[in-house]
Design goal:
It is a single chain. The protein starts with 16 loop residues before the first helix and ends with a helix. The chain has helices spanning about 15-25, 35, 40, 90-105, 125-130, 150-160, 175-190, 215-225, 285-304; strands spanning about 50-55, 65-70, 80-85, 115-120, 165-175, 205-210, 240, 245, 250-255, 270-275. The chain contains 9 helices and 10 strands. The protein has an 8-stranded mixed β-sheet, with helices on both faces. A two-stranded antiparallel sheet has the order 7-8. Belongs to the peptidase M14 family. This is M14 family metallocarboxypeptidase.
């Protein structure tokens, strides 16, 4: 496989600091967080409280302020809803969907739920269209105590300091062709393991929490997205990305055990969305709209 990541280090040997540094040096900035994301967050100050909840300092690669949007009229008697995007920086519709929801639909929930929206959790990776952070760590496996991923640690501190109960958390993601051609081979190379090819589902699906699946909630999100884009079918063995399909378009992971962002709260309703932007049946606009539809459905379900 012609993949620069698989050429770093020695086959069968996990990467050390030198290999991780070589990987980082090979990552090239392809877009600007400061130009493409931050001004859109700043433009929402009339509607939200905009707080900086952290700062990533990646030396020569730059410093990246981390921003959260919070309901301006925060009501102590109401629970809050958490929306996160860009935990994996390359998953563009997660960032776009979170911002689009904030811009166009958040006001529909005024006085009904407090909102907390972190549109771009991993800006270094956003700029380089990467899954990992600058330390060759996957933030979405590092929502753990004493996290070594500063993106994950900062969001965990933010959540720990929020007032009130979290009713629902929806974490916006994508599954892309590059998962199979670049990121999974890189993971195998980094960890000194053989790469085992998988499949990429064609369509939208969600991931629920194994200990707390909430299938009616997951299915409500699927139904809301169905008019926007197609739902991923199961593989012939009844799985999506190797996990059993427990309802149409729904698989389960153990959020907290795997250190996933969707396990960062103790909310009763939690889900991770997955759109497929490389499908010939979906446009970038549809992917963004699917994320927005999923957020709205998740919040409305929580309000029932």
């Amino acid at each position: 496989m012609d993949n620069v990541d698989t050429m770093i280090g020695q086959p069968g040997q996990p990467w050390g600091d030198a290999e991780k540094s070589a990987w980082r040096a090979s990552r090239r900035q392809q877009r600007s967080y400061a130009e493409a994301v931050v001004p859109r967050i700043e433009a929402l100050r009339a509607q939200f409280v905009v707080d900086q909840y952290g700062m990533l300092d990646y030396g020569g690669d730059g410093r990246f302020p981390l921003y959260v949007l919070k309901s301006k009229d925060w009501r102590k008697e109401l629970p809050y809803a958490l929306v996160t995007g860009g935990v994996h920086g390359y998953e563009t519709s997660g960032v776009e969907g979170a911002l689009q929801f904030a811009q166009r639909h958040a006001s529909d929930f005024d006085g009904r739920l407090n909102l907390v929206i972190a549109p771009c959790v991993s800006p270094w990776a956003y700029e380089r269209i990467q899954r990992w952070n600058a330390l060759a760590l996957d933030p979405n496996r590092n929502f753990i105590d004493n996290s070594p991923a500063p993106e994950s640690a900062a969001l965990m501190r933010l959540v720990a300091g929020l007032e009130g109960e979290c009713a629902v958390h929806i974490d916006l993601h994508e599954t892309t062709d590059t998962d199979e051609t670049e990121f999974r081979p890189a993971l195998a190379a980094r960890d000194g393991k053989p790469f085992e090819p998988g499949t990429i589902p064609d369509g939208f699906y969600v991931v629920g929490d194994t200990p707390n699946p909430q299938l009616a909630f997951q299915s409500a999100v699927i139904e809301a997205v169905r008019p926007v884009t197609h739902i991923a079918p199961a593989d012939p063995d009844g799985t999506i990305i190797g996990s059993e399909v427990v309802a149409e378009g729904v698989i389960l992971y153990d959020f907290k055990a795997l250190g996933l962002c969707a396990g960062v709260t103790d909310a009763r309703l939690t889900t991770t969305t997955e759109v497929y932007p490389d499908s010939p049946r979906a446009t970038p606009e549809q992917c963004n709209d699917a994320q927005v539809a999923a957020v709205i459905a998740a919040l409305e379900f929580a309000l029932k």
